[in-house]
Amino acid sequence: MPRRTEPRTGATVGAALLAVQINGSKNRRPRSQPSHPGFTGYTRQGNSLAYAPHTCGIFSFHPDVIVTTEDSRTASAPHLVVLGGGLAGLTAAEAALNRVPGVRITIVEPTGRPGGVLETVRDGGWLVERSADSFLGARPEGVALVERLGLTSELIGIEPRVRRALVWHAGRTVPAPDGFRLLAPGLLTGILSTPLLSPAGRLRVLVERFVPPRRPPAEDATADESLESFAVRRLGREAFERLVQPLASGIWTADPARLSMAAACPEFLEMERSDGSLWAGEHRRLRAKAHAVAAGARYGQFLSLARGMESLPARLAEHLRDRGATFVQARASGIVPGPTGGWEIPLAAGATGLARLAADAVVVAVPAPAAAGLFAGLDGALAADLAAIEYAGSAIVSLGFARDDVAHPLDAAGLVVPRVAGRRALAVSFSSSKFLGRAPAGCVLMRVFLGGALDPEALDRDDDALVALAYEEAAILVGARGRPRLVQVARWAGAMPQYHVGHLVRMQRIELALAAHPGLALAGNAYTGVGIPQVIASGQTAAARCFGVA
Predict the structure, then answer these.
(1) Which domains does the chain have, with CATH numbers?
(2) Which pTM was predicted?
(3) Which of 428, 487, 424, 512 is nearest to 460 (CA)?
(4) CB neighbours of 217 closer than 8 A, spacing ≥ 6?
(5) Strand locations in 124-232, DSSP E?
(6) pLDDT-based confidence at residue 186 (cuts at 50, 70, 90)
(7) Which strand (E) or helix (H) includes residue 443?
(8) How far is CA 302 from the centre of its chain?
(9) Rounded to whole angstroms, how far apart are CA atoms 272 and 265?
(10) Region 418-424: what's the mean pLDDT?
(11) Do residues 235 and 229 lie in contact, with contact meaning Cβ atoms separated by under 8 Å?
């Protein structure tokens, strides 16, 4: 019988091929047993809540640690409360411990499991990532965290032989043009030779270098533009529909007609403004990359961990516990000013348990809608801006097959599917081709991505219907047949923040509002970037904001 796991809802989903996203947890299905070695439930002790004493895995719990309703703030030992135990919250806690002498840390997470959506399932020789399966190595934050935690020996890159993406076109898989990166064409030969574009489509991409840059009106320096508008203007409609849209969907699961260039793709926007064209900007980038390679760049573009991505937050949580951080399984219901300064956080634990945490500073590292609820009683305008950040959802159906039951050679990292192709899959990631150790000998593992902003109805299906849809897509796209040896469904409802046109203006208002509340900060993927390195950076920035340290 194929193995299956229970579907769960969570905060966000790793993109299929070219980038990954991450955030704190949200709407997870409660578990009947203690769900992770790092958190504990509560028992009532008078006017306080105490940890339920037990020991589990790598973490030890101490029954004498009490969360009291009294003001626990002291001048000599500032107290930071982190709301949300996802990667953003954990890295905020680590940054505070590294930068603020004597700081005390309390991490509040309602699910009782640190790490947010980073979750790895190991089952009989299969290693399945339920969300993000890698992170961008070109940015320093992810690699630096791995090194600080002593996980460098676990780093693995995408197998060299499959470092390319395929695009579904005219009933077959076709390699993306050599040198083409999301929006930027880098190699003339790649565009001239690709069968993905008609002769007229290729010519339109070639003349991009002569398209004048868009100049926003002088009276509106913040004027934004959608990804679709930008791509069609610079590369033409055909290149957008057959290349840019599917590649972008594999990153943001977004509607490109609403996705903000300024918020989601500032690098390419800057190419137009500074270099005059995407061709010129990409050539400049490639020259700089060649210098970096010549200087001995250590890592490839995308990296993972040999034992799965969950080992990153698991090790970080262990590191924080060893340095004295307290983990609390409870749900915060708001943030209010403390009677003698600082902040108080009302908590709910279990059916009747209630308490308050007193804090000098608070990092709110939960999804934007949850953050809006926490700020509602403190700052209505800030809460409204947070609530206005829209989210999309998706599902990942992981399918394991015998190698002989899949006709496609799976000789790429995966494939993306243009919306104009009329299929339901957003993408298929070839997990066992990308990274070693993901499937038993003689088997292959793939992940089929469904849903997204343009197909929200996909998540209305029950598990059996989702699996049937994923199997149908895999059969057509890669020639899968026979009975899967492994089936797993991961649901991420309302999980992926959508950086719609105007997102940066909203973020300016959010920043101004936060400035009126010293000691409060936001972290997560809803604000300044959806990738793992950006989320790590958001946690570090939040800790610095809370305590005014660099």
Answers:
(1) 42-116+308-389+500-547 (3.50.50.60), 120-161+390-497 (3.90.660.20), 178-212+224-294 (1.10.3110.10)
(2) 0.87
(3) 424
(4) 223
(5) 126-129, 135-136, 155-157, 165-169, 172-175, 180-181, 184-185
(6) very high
(7) strand 443-451
(8) 14
(9) 11
(10) 97
(11) no
